[in-house]
Amino acid sequence: MTSISEQFGREDWSRFSSRQKWQRFAIFAVCALAIAWSITSIEVVWAWVWDAPSQMGDLFERMYPPDATNLATILRVLWETVNIATFATAFAVLMSLPVAYLAAQNTTPNRATLWLGRLILVTSRSVNTIIWALLFVAIFGPGVVAGIIAIMFRSIGFIGKLLGEAIEEIDKRPVEALEATGASRFKVIAYAIVPQVMPTFWAVAILRWDINLRESTVLGLVGAGGIGIILQGAIDTFNWPEAATVLLSILVLVIIGEVVSAFLRRRIL
Amino acid sequence: MLKITDLVKRYGSGDPVLKNLDLTIEGESVVSIIGSSGAGKSTLLRCINRLVEPTSGSIELNGTELTKLRGRNLRAARRKIGMVFQGFNLVDRLTVMENVQSGRLGYISTWAAIMRRYPKEDIRRAYELMERVGIAHYANTRADQLSGGERQRVGVVRALMQDPEILLADEPTASLDPKTSEQIMGLLRDLAGELKLPVLINIHNVTEAKEYTDRIVGMRYGRIIFDDKPGSLDQEAMDRIYSGSPHADRSEDLRQAS
Amino acid sequence: MSEARDTWQKPPFIASPAIRWAVYLGALGYFLWVGATMPIDWGRVADGFGRAGRIFGGAFPPSFERSGLLIDGFLESLKIAILATTGGVLLSIPIAFTAARNVAPLPIYYLGRFIIIVARSFHPVIVAIIFVKAVGFGPFAGVLTLVVYSIGFVAKMLAERIEEIDFGQVEAMRAAGAPFFSTMFYAIFPQIMPRQIGLTIYQLDSNLRASAVVGIVGAGGIGATLANAFGRYDYDFALAITIVIVGVILISEGISGMIRKRIG
């Protein structure tokens, strides 16, 4: 009878080979180094760090009980926030359709348009909504216009990318079949491609609306409309109870938004 | 009449998939093409409606040379060629009626297509054909709710709605169970007779080919090596069609050429 | 024979005509009414196009003169992202377990879900403002903000993954008499690890993007540099900063995508 070591070349067993162990160690070391570097070189006053829990506690104490005297104004501005998000999402959805079509390899007319479509999407996605808002407040002045356009610009990239991927992943067989019947390119797209991406289209639109609801709550902090302005005002005047009311109403808004999107998603898909 | 002359299809610089093929289909007959996988049956069919681009050769349908057509002319020619696919190739999320009417997309305006305002004659014809093949009650049902055999019937009606001059069927029964398979083959044969339509069917089930078609064309690695009535397809012919390998054939070609 | 039918209509998506028309009219009414009553200063908007011209004129070419500031800002954002991802992911693991229906008892489950909902509902900028007020300006507030941000996403995804695990493996361990933690490490962790690693990498990328922004409200990082540039009308510097931000995001997204594909 041969021994284990003769049969398998080793007496023990371990989950990872020697090489894998080195790889895992290397990865672990890199992560540890990165973390160590960050902790040591970051500009943090450590005294404040240890003080943080009591500071947080103090803050929450000041917020309680929430002050609802200005609730009417808060709700009115909250409604304005919802409108900003809804309008912006609707416009963005419409505008992302042609861009997605250009950015999908199987529907784009040529390489130049493919590149253009992808460039538009990447630019739109990589610049955060707030940064867009800073730009548009500089251009159009403070107010809801800057906010709507900012959200629109950011959303086009989000929707367009997912839509473009959906277009690229369709079942190509109906496309082949309809081309074989002598239908023009446009009709082939309308009958073979559009029905296939419809579910994704609605899902992405609803998802982005939900995200935009959140985004629009902070636009006011840079002057682009919505409830951010009231929040900023309350915080600047150290009116913590009112700030608490605003925060609570934002929480309720977002939760309602999630419920509505879940409902729509279930009904449509 | 379909007349294929000297058809060659080569991918890249490798061995041609179709080697100088000649084939003529006249009048109303049901012709089946048999052969092992890789014989080039599907490529041949797809060259006819240019889903695959022929490398060289001529394909003539009722006087029109198909290989040189582009753009609008190609689409006009494709209207006259109906195709039934192995995977049915329906738009799953659309209703049967829309799928069937999509065969007429080459004939109706873009607005009518998008708004689903189909011409009255088209709707009437659709109901007639659907009634004939037994799926009229599914008109408003989504295509993905039908069984395989029913879906293929939708595919057949879609092809016939084009009012084609020839019907191509690429392994129409490969995804179906034996009983449904026979139903579809019978349907194709009967419709060919009723509508006076030439039909060209790729098939791998030789028994069905013998039973449902008038003429069998046997392909082997890009060439036609059998073209006769089903009765003449004996065991020896079958062996010739289905045996061997591309490599062996290629070395045989090289040997003969030298 | 059946009568010749020559008309056909596609069955509408919403079957009941009452509801269908209510939805159409409601949507139309909403957009028209809200659109008309929105507080927009159209004069200012028209002016905007002229302003845009001047701004873009001033922004080109982008100015990298103060690149020292730029690099400092970016490095700080990077550190914030690294620390926040570490803290956030570590905290997310236990929170995810409390928020998984199949592992946590019901009251704990509700608590876990509540934590995640609150973490997700507030935009990181809002959370940043609060932390800045609590612990002062600077990157520490940024780290805390993004820890909350990370928990909101990672814990949620992880909880969903935990709910989807093959419970048979847990059963087998229990049947063999394994204690609680051993069961966790042998039966549950191996199933969630791949998803966990993917999420961590994704969140690192996400945090890098977000850390560029929380600086705008004083939580450290390159966002502060950017907000300053805008405030001082230094549009060419602002463009330089934006280009760097976009570039970093793209690189990070590319690397993150590559790594996740290799392990996925």
Automatic annotation (TrEMBL), chain A:
Q: Lineage of this protein's species?
A: Bacteria, Pseudomonadati, Pseudomonadota, Alphaproteobacteria, Rhodobacterales
Q: Where found?
A: Cell membrane
Question: Per the database entry, which stretches of residues form a coiled coil?
Answer: none
The protein's matches in Pfam families, at most eight in alphabetical order, are given as: BPD_transp_1 (PF00528)
Q: Where are the transmembrane segments?
A: 25-49, 84-104, 130-153, 188-207, 219-238, 244-264
InterPro entries given in the database record = MetI-like (IPR000515), MetI-like_sf (IPR035906), PhnE/PtxC (IPR005769)
| NCBIfam families, sorted | PhnE
Stated family: Belongs to the binding-protein-dependent transport system permease family.
Keywords recorded for this protein, A-Z: Cell membrane, Membrane, Transmembrane, Transmembrane helix, Transport
What is the protein name given in its UniProt record? Phosphonate ABC transporter, permease protein PhnE
Residues covered by the ABC transmembrane type-1 domain? 78-261
State the annotated membrane topology for this chain: Multi-pass membrane protein
From TrEMBL, chain B:
GO molecular function annotations of the record: ATP binding
Q: Annotated region Disordered: where?
A: 238-258
* InterPro entries given in the database record: AAA+_ATPase (IPR003593), ABC_transporter-like_ATP-bd (IPR003439), ABC_transporter-like_CS (IPR017871), ABC_transpr_PhnC (IPR012693), MetN_ABC_transporter-like (IPR050086), P-loop_NTPase (IPR027417)
User: What keywords were assigned to this record?
Assistant: ATP-binding, Cell inner membrane, Cell membrane, Membrane, Nucleotide-binding, Translocase, Transport
What Pfam families does the database record attribute to this sequence? Answer: ABC_tran
Q: Which residues form the ABC transporter domain?
A: 2-246
This chain belongs to the protein called: Phosphonate ABC transporter ATP-binding protein
SUPFAM superfamilies per the UniProt record, alphabetical: P-loop containing nucleoside triphosphate hydrolases
The answer to whether UniProt assigns keyword Zinc to this entry is no
| Keyword Lyase listed | no
UniProt lists compositionally biased (Basic and acidic residues) regions at 247-258
The cross-references to CDD domains, in alphabetical order and at most eight, read:
ABC_PhnC_transporter (cd03256)
Signal sequence residues: none
From TrEMBL, chain C:
Q: Report the gene name.
A: phnE
Q: Name one Pfam family in it.
A: BPD_transp_1
Q: Which CDD domains match?
A: TM_PBP2 (cd06261)
Q: Which domain of life is it from?
A: Bacteria
Family affiliation: Belongs to the binding-protein-dependent transport system permease family.
What name has this protein been given in UniProt?
A: Phosphonate ABC transporter, permease protein PhnE
Q: Which residues cross the membrane?
A: 21-40, 80-104, 125-152, 172-189, 210-231, 237-259
InterPro entries reported for this sequence: MetI-like, MetI-like_sf, PhnE/PtxC
